Amino acid sequence: MNCLIFALSLMLPNREKYSALIKSRAKKFGFQSCGISKSGFLEEDAQPLEDYLGQGYHGEMQYMENYFDKRLDTTKLVEGSKSVISLSYNYFPEEEISTLDNYKISKYAYAEDYHEIIREILREMVAELQEEIGDFHFRIFVDSAPVLERSWARKSGIGWVGKNANLITKQKGSFFFLAEIICDLELEPDSPVTDHCGRCTSCIDACPTNAIVGDRIIDGSKCISYATIELKNEIPESFKNKMEDWMFGCDICQDVCPWNRFSVAHNQPKFLPNHILRTYRKADWKELTQELFSEIFRKSPVKRTKFAGLKRNIEFLGDRPDPEV
Q: Which amino acids does the record list as binding cob(II)alamin (predicted)?
């Protein structure tokens, strides 16, 4: 069968042959999905992005106002680029950290820092592709630089943007990271998939801070993830008694999404939580020191909030009794 596929691939135009090869290599290197779009201007995202920034929904994330043109046009971000290769990488854990008498941390932060892990995997994948295709110009992005990841992933057919503004797939839910290879290869673009949120409002109904304010629009300044990670100042009193023990990030809108019943556990050893995350409880977190923070989160995304930020979050949460079961 493999010989037949190889023989047929020789008969295909380069852009189709290379596209098939890239998707095959993406699967080999552990990516959940791979889709391709033509590099260019995201016309349908221009006005929504301008409106989002104009409404101040980005809160104190001033960096979102930078490089407006490059956010919308990948040919300005990567000169000479012809294709955007979008990829997803599963991070859904086999076992969740206990929330009994515990503060909560987003599942993506159980792991070592995904930026470097996925970036290194992509470097190896591109090196192998260049051995087979020949040299080509590219840049790799993993939640970095001004790239509208969800827009490109939606355009490439990986999934649709749900009402919680996360990318969702029917087969795998939404617990995955997104990454891109923007390159000068002429590739065969994929088509977007249809929206399957329907009349479901589970994410909207479950959000304790009412951060989902419109169709696929999140008021970041109301979001628990924003308050616990991005916000550098004191957490506003409007969050009091609404954070449901989240000390870093928030998974509520994903946890209640019906499509996430199809999520399966990842098989990436570097995404396994360390033993301290598995064993610590509220009393332990309240005694957290700078030294312990540095030890526990040395390779973790949690280091982004710094020791002072995590202590601030814990102190703001205080003692919230566990719900009765």
A: 71, 143, 164, 167, 178, 225, 250-251
